[in-house]
């Protein structure tokens, strides 16, 4: 038996704003950051559980503080007990009525809960000697349903329906796992499409994306309509008619504006329009989807929890569900979101990029393929080719497909040298820039 | 001219869990708390701007930290400039794209923005020598609309519609202000109805409430159906047929459960059912409202922002809108919520109680009466008679009506002795309790 002996939170920021990687209509100058947690134990195995919340700079300290306050309750606790019932460990945080007031189930506090439970998942998968996706796939339908919280979902998904989906998902699951390891999983790239890039850079990166084997690219839109038309024309001309081009407005518009703007871009045969308006606007997304049909609407990276996703599925607000590894309450809540998506027959194409999102969210897509939806149709994981070098097990995309990881853990562990360099504000990377 | 010279945040908690004041089906043991902000300047006037976020205990430190990080940007800034354009001061925080990632517009970060802008409002009203409600009423329709953010609202409320509402609101506004000062504003009391109270205490407090002049009381429900029936029978028998009895489930139920439970309580002729399910569930509230009609559904104390309120009004999810002084992004966002409610013809009955909520939210109801809805029909402010003694200008209810304050400021300033006693964990009130 072992005990949690340390909780260490770190404010880690990368100076991405200098190169305008990640710039879009709402986020002109992000510094991709991680409010990062390490859970240490007194076990001889020397393993650390790691989890994080992705942010884009200022406020990363606020998130790190929330994680620190929340996680400190686990110091001195029995590790085997915490890991044996991950549903109970998660609910201990979710159902703390005093902490719940700070959301409920949204924003800084909810993301902190996600980081903490994800760190325990990382530790548990490492102890099991399995990558997280395979570790989740090894659980029975009953064990999986016991991980989630069906409160507020019963009008859309009952416990029995969740069990049915997971039981059906067992058919052929071993074959799908083997196929994943052999062939990987589809990726799409946002690399060419950041607003801060010149037309020349857009064209070069779009050409390279196709050469690299990607079948979908994504462009940011919403700052200037004429710019969008010009950039989409360049992109479509460069990639040809058979490569899918998605667009992403990052919540820039009101409803009429979204519809009118996108009607003018429809000629470019778009794969989807992502985040056309507020991520809280279930009814607004539904109206946009109706009026822009058949152009699909995608959203999810800022959707706060399973209750909003439930409504978006009920109201047909989205045709592509973009789950995020760090936005909701961790692996547990994301399992319930995968089940909701399966129930409504909507494909999940996770949001990734940022820092560490590709590394972590991929596990959820593989679990979805092996155990839940059993399908890759219309499914792919976002990929942005930056900051992977800071992770112990970096995400890898070859020929437009993710290589499926086999290393134990959840993919969230950062390299010690990277932490040392980019811890904010004292890391030597930052002192060099600022000094 | 003067400069912001200090930002001081304090974690202040009151040991309310010891007496079970404030206990309900979701919150069995709250310690009412305030993450409290003082903004100091170098002006000779010696005035301090105060604002806070109400929480119920653990996590108050997380909220205080968020306020500290956020507010620190204003140290060294020109006070007159910040106060002259409160729309710009607010938007500087709301539109900080890096901080926005932590919500957007919800939870810990959004409430922190509310506390900071409310502290500036307190300072501005004090400098003007006016209570906040009167200070807001002194602004022109154009000045008021410039305070708010209509983004994501245009499908429900345009700038022209907002201006029209405010221009119509000027008719008779001086008479209504005079009437407020003479006669006060309706209150209702939650005092008798906490779940932790014995039947005897419920009966005694209900009898006292009627004797004190209240025309509505509220009971917490949702923990046990038979208990609810017994308690409502006691309450109805005690207050007679003419006093309104509202009920509050504090998010306890899923949709079917809410409908089935409340159908069994309908015989007690209820004024409303409050928070039957998740505050995020616009569609769920709408379905509950349809199936329970004509029993009104009320919600709002946990509604995160104007975008959710907009949808709840569009979908007819609520018949009573319960704004909260601390949940959303402060006075500015609450003005937009009052305008939405006026547009849809829904009465606003603010959530209060807790600590400092009565003191602060009353200003918004008076502003609503004087300048927006122009009506008291179906409108009243919640009142819970505790913790008022900690405020410099405590809320006062006489004969079932709020006495309207005339002291300058927003009502948020706490007494120095109270702060000293209950600052957590070092205040002498806490050191005495904890041994």
Write up this protein.
Two copies of one chain form a homodimer. Chain A has 18 helices and twelve strands. With 435 residues, chain A is an alpha/beta fold. The model of chain A has no long low-confidence stretch (mean pLDDT 96). Chains A and B meet through helix 1, helix 4, helix 5, helix 12 and helix 13 of A and helix 1, helix 4, helix 5, helix 12 and helix 13 of B.
Summarize this entry quickly.
Two copies of one chain form a homodimer. Chain A is an alpha/beta fold and 435 residues long.
Report the sheet with the most strands of chain A, covering strand number, pairing sense and barrel closure.
9 strands, mixed
Mean pLDDT of chain A, as a whole number?
Answer: 96
* CATH architecture type of the domain at 173-418 in chain A: Alpha-Beta Barrel
Give the largest chain-chain interface (CB within 8 Å).
Answer: A-B, 62 and 62 residues
Helix- and strand-based class of chain A?
alpha/beta
CATH C-level class of the domain at 173-418 in chain A: Alpha Beta
Instruction: State the helical fraction of chain A.
Output: 40-55%
| Shape, principal axes of CA atoms of chain A | globular
Task: Kindly provide the radius of gyration of chain A, computed on alpha-carbon positions and rounded to a whole number of angstroms.
Answer: 21 Å
Low-confidence stretches of chain A: none
Gap between N and C termini of chain A, in Å? 47 Å
Number of strands of chain A: 12
Strand content of the residues of chain A, in percent? 5-15%
Oligomer: homodimer
Taken in chain order, the helices and strands of chain A follow as: EEEHHHHHHHHHEHEHEHEHEHEHHEEEHH
CATH superfamily of the domain at 173-418 in chain A: Enolase-like C-terminal domain
